[in-house]
Design goal:
Layout: E1 3-4, E2 11-12, E3 18-23, H1 30-35, H2 42-58, E4 61-66, H3 76-86, E5 89-95, H4 109-121, E6 133-137, H5 144-160, E7 164-167, H6 175-184, E8 192-194, H7 203-210, E9 215-218, H8 229-241, E10 248-250, H9 263-273, H10 281-292, H11 297-313
Parallel strand pairs: 3-4, 4-5, 5-6, 6-7, 7-8, 8-9, 9-10
Antiparallel strand pairs: 1-2
Helix pairs in contact: 2-3, 4-5
């Protein structure tokens, strides 16, 4: 077993248990929050997120990995309060999203790493909370700046030993492009989760990622407008039949608060369209559906417990 960085202190990997590998407690623009006190109702976010985390915990979830990157408004003060109130183990990320911001052009990767490494070795936002995973992202193509950010993630990983988890557009097939950059930087691809692969039922594409050694994130359950739950279940079941159960992890990519639209629109319009986009859907509905689709208990345990533990246990391999 190994010790990994958690929001409430070190976590023994043997205690991770049922782990949701790609979730979000709060996504909100930091500059707008700084400028306008009413941009986010923090008390309401903490209340709602605590209820969601407690509900997941009551269903057997022991650990939530919050993959909110720095420039999507990561706030460890909010995350810590939710973790404490819900008595939930939470692992928080460092790293940068794919949004191309003006400052990114003039900074070399190693200079960016000098800052991000502080999240892992010293603490985040003036706290003693240390990042346990690196988040990076690619939209529809690996652009010049995006390649730079992927190299930042790779070098930070090699310097710290903590794993990488990504955001991808599966419809654009960008997972292998991320792997190309990581491989060029000397990353062991088995230390990488290529995210949002569950948005695709193209087995050829998914196996092209898997054959290179990475884990794939089947991690957007509840977003049926992208791909239906039935197709997501069927895809996982087929991959298990082909021997890939040891290379997949599950999650929802759910957000307890998301400021991509006003809160009244998000709560009144968005949430009703995605009623299962929450931390409960996998234990409540997905696991039973996988079982019904023929995924055996050993593979279910791999998907929810053993694979997350394996991803985190390989720390310090560089």
């Amino acid at each position: 077993m190994a010790k990994i960085n958690g929001v409430l202190g070190p976590i023994d990997t043997g205690d991770l248990g049922f782990t949701l590998m790609h979730e979000h407690i709060l996504i909100a623009n930091s500059a707008m929050r700084q400028a306008f006190a009413g941009w986010v109702d923090v008390d309401d976010v903490v209340r709602f997120a605590t209820e969601e985390a407690k509900a997941a915990g009551s269903r057997g979830v022991r650990t939530i990995v919050d993959l909110t990157p720095i420039n999507l408004g990561r706030d460890v003060h909010v995350i810590r309060e939710v973790a404490e109130r819900a008595r939930m183990q939470v692992v928080v990320a460092t790293g940068l999203y794919f949004h191309e911001e003006p400052w990114m052009g003039g900074w070399e990767p190693d200079r960016i790493v000098e800052f991000l490494i502080q999240d892992v070795e010293k603490g985040i936002q003036g706290t003693d909370i240390k990042a346990g995973i690196i988040k990076c992202a690619t939209d529809q193509a690996v652009t010049t700046i995006n390649e730079k950010l992927l190299r930042v993630a790779a070098r930070l990983h090699r310097a710290t030993g903590i794993p990488i988890s990504t955001h991808t557009d599966a419809s654009a097939g960008v997972g292998p492009g991320q792997q190309d950059v990581f491989e060029d930087e000397g990353v062991d691809l088995s230390r990488v989760v290529i995210g949002h692969c569950g948005d695709s039922d193209d087995l050829d594409y998914l196996e092209s990622v898997l054959r290179r050694g990475s884990f794939i994130g089947m991690d957007r359950f509840g977003l049926d407008g992208v791909l239906s739950t039935d197709k997501r279940i069927s895809t996982i079941a087929k991959l298990c039949e082909r021997g890939w159960a040891e290379r997949m992890v599950l999650s929802h990519d759910a957000c307890c608060h998301l400021d991509f639209m006003p809160k009244d629109v998000f709560d009144g319009v968005m949430r009703p369209r995605v009623p299962n986009w929450n931390f409960r859907h996998i234990p409540d509905d997905v696991v039973p559906a996988l079982r019904k689709a023929g995924v055996d208990e050993a593979d279910l345990r791999r998907l929810t417990v053993e694979n997350p533990r394996s991803i985190f246990e390989k720390q310090g391999s560089y």
